[in-house]
Amino acid sequence: MTFVYPALALGFLLALLPLLIHLINMMRHRRVEWAAMEFLLKSYKKHRKWVWLKQLLLLLLRMAAIALLVAMLAQWITRGQWTELFGGKTTHHYVLLDDSYSMSERIGSTTAFEQAEQFLQQLGDEAVEQLEQQGAQKFTLIRFSQAAGLRDRADMSIGDIGALADMNAEEVTADFDVQLQEQRNQFEVTELSVGPRMALDMVTQLLDQNQGENRAIYLVSDFRNNEWSSPEGIAESLRELDKTDADLHFIKCAREVQNNLAIVDLSPADETRAAGVPLFMNVKIKNYGKQVERNVQVTMRTFFHVDLADGEVSADDLVGEADEIFLPPVASIGPGETLTTRVQVYFPQAGQHVVQAELKDGDAVKADNMRWSVVDFPDSEKVLIVDGSGEQFHSYYLESVFRPGASTNTGVQPEVRNDPAYLRNVSQDELRKFSAIYLLNVPTLETRAVKNLESYVQSGGGLCIFVGDQVNSTFYNNNLFKDGEGLLPLKLGLTDLLGTDFDEGEPDVIVTDHPVFEIFAKERDPIVNRVTVEQYLKPHDSFELADHPTVTVAATLRNGDPLAVEKTFGRGRVVLFTTTVAPIWNDWGLNPFLVVVGLKLQSHLAATQRLAPEYNVANPLDISLAMERYTNNVKFFLPNNVNMEREEVEVVADPGKEGSPLMRASLGGESTAASRETARSGIYDVVLTEVDGKPEVRRYAVNLDPNEGDLALADQGEMLLKLDPIKPTVRFVEEYAGDIIEQAGFNRAMLLLLLLVGALVAEQLLAYSASYHPPSRRA
What we know:
Strand order of the largest sheet: 20-19-21-22-28-27-26-24
Low-confidence stretches: 79-87
Mean pLDDT: 86
Shape: elongated
Number of strands: 38
Oligomer: single chain
Largest sheet: 8 strands, mixed
Distance between the termini: 59 Å
Number of helices: 22
CATH superfamily of the largest domain: Class I glutamine amidotransferase (GATase) domain
CATH architecture of the largest domain: 3-Layer(aba) Sandwich
Strand content: 25-35%
Helix content: 25-40%
Number of domains: 4
Structural class: alpha+beta
C-alpha cells in the first residue's frame, strides 16, 4: 500500500481511538447489586449476543471511518485500475523524452536534458527495485526526434512505428537499469525544433497493441510557451490518448525563464552581388529574455573558396580561407527586441562563399548562437538595355551608371541593343542570363517580343521601362497594360508639362520609403531636392490606382502624379518611370541622383533572382542535375562534428520521370529526424562530377529554427484549461525523489470518500439501532 503523502499514514494509529475510548469506559463501570433489576437480567441474557454484535460493529465502523479519512488525506494510490484491486497486471511505462535543442538550456551546473535523463534513469532503477512488489513491468522509450519521422512517413506499419522507438515494450529484468544506462549514453540534445504531438500519436498507436496492461505515460519536456500556448493539435492527440485510460504525467524540466540571445537570421542585403564588389550582410539578433542585454559581442567570419582542380575531391580540398571581421559590441538589446546589424564582406573571386555569425557564448542556450549563410557571387550581374532612340543616347546615361570606368566596379555588366526586334527572336534561356531588362524610349514591340518579356518576368526577372517622346501610348496600353492584366503598371495618358506654378523650395520629386528611394528619405539634405522634371506622361484619366492592388507608387511629382510605379507580375517585378532616363525631360542624368537611383533600381529588380532556398535542420537536401552535363555520382560532405573529420556520404542520383532531362540526388530524406544526415547545422558541400570528369561544388547552409530558442514557459493553469477535460498530473522533475512509480499510480481518493460517507451513514444507523429510545407519549 502506497501513499502520495506517506507521513500522513501515521494517522492510521488514530483508528485505535474508538477502541481506546471503549476500554476506558469499561474501566469506569462499577458492578452494583440492585434487586429491582434482577428481573431484567433474564431478558438481557437472552439478547446479549445481538447487543454485543451491534456494539462490535459500531466500534469497527468508527475505527474504519477514521482509517478511511486518513487514507484519503494521505492519498492512497494503486498501480492499476479497479480490476487491479483484485488481481495483478503488467505495468507498462511509456516515456516520451523531449530532445529538442531548447532542452540544452543550462540550469545551474546541469541542463534541462540532463535532468530529464536523470528522471529516466531513476524510473528505470525503481522499476527494477519494485519487480517483486509491482509484478511484471515493461518499458517503452520514445524521443521526440525519433517520433518526428512519422510526419514524413504516413504509410508506416505498426512494426515500423515500433522500430522508431528507442525501446519498445522492453521487459524489465534485474539488469534493466544497466541496459537503460547504456541507452542513455547514446543520447544527446539534437538541434531540432520538434514538439510532442508526433510522439503522442506514436504512443497512441503502440497502446492499441498492448491491451490488458496498466499504462503510465510520462511526457518529459520543458513545456515552452511557443508549443503549449495554443495546444490545439496536441490536445487532439491527447484526447485520443485519453480514450485508452492510461495514466498521464507531465514532467517539467524547466522551472524559471532564463535570458537567451539568438541569431535569428543571417542574409545578404538586397544589393548587387558580384565578385570584387563589397556586400553588406544583415545579422539579426533577438533577445528572448526579460532583461536588457548589454555589450553583446558578435563575431563574423568569412570563408573564401577557390575553384577546385581536376581530380578526386577530399574534405581537405573544401576548407575555405577563413577571415575574422572585428565588430564593436552591440550596446544593448531590449527584452523581446530584434536588432539588425550590418557587416560588409568582400570576396575577390566568383564562387559560392561562406559567411558565419556567432554570439559570444554565455547565455542559457548555446545552439542558437551561430548561423551560416552561403552567398553566390557571380563574376557580374548581366543586364540588357534596349534603346529605342537608335542612337544609344538614352542607353549612354544608364550604361555610364553601371560601367562608370575601368577603376570602378559596380558589379553590373550592361549589354546594349539598339533594335527592339532582338526581343522577338531571343530564347528564354538567353534572356534568363540577364538579371534585369531595361526598355528606354522603345516605341513599340512585336507580339512575340511582348510574350518573351511576359515569360521572363513571370519566372522572376526584373523589367524597367523609361518612357520618352517615341513611346506609343496607345500600343503600350493595348499590349502591355491590357486593362491591368499585362506588364505595364499603369495606363498611360498624354504628355504633360510639370509647370512652374509651385511654392518656392518645393522639390519636383517626392520620394517614399520604397527600396529604390528610401536612401533619399533618410537624408537631411537629399540630392533629390535638386532634381528638375519638366515633362512626363500622365496616367490615363480612366486609371484608378485603388483598382490595382499589385501596383505601388514609389515616387511622385509635386503635383501628385506618379513618377515611378512598381507592379508585381508573376514572380518578377516591373518598374515604370513616366519620364526619360536621359536628361531630356529632366536633368537627373546631370547629377548624382541617376547614379544612386540606377544602382538601387538594379539591386531591386534583380532581387527576386537572388533568392536562395533556406534549409532547416533535418530537412532533406534535394539536388537536381542535368543528365547531359553530370554523372550520377554525388558526394555530400557533412559539417564538422566536434573533434571529428567531415563525414562523406555517396549518393547515386535517381533518373527523373520518363523524358525528364534532370536527375535527383537527396540527402537525409529517408531516415528519421534524429538520424538524418542533415540533423546538424552548418555547411554541406556537394561535389558533382561533370561528364568530362571536372568536379563542381555546390554549398548549402543548414540552420536550426531560431524560434526554439524562445525559453518562455507555458502557464500551467492556462495550459490545463486548454487541455480540458484531459487531467494530467503535472510535477517538476525534482519533485520525484525515489517514488516515481508510487506517484504514478491511480489515486483512490474518490473511492475512499464514497466509502467514508457509507461508513458514517452506517455508523449513525447502527448507533441509533443500538441505543435506547423510550416510547413517545400519546395523548
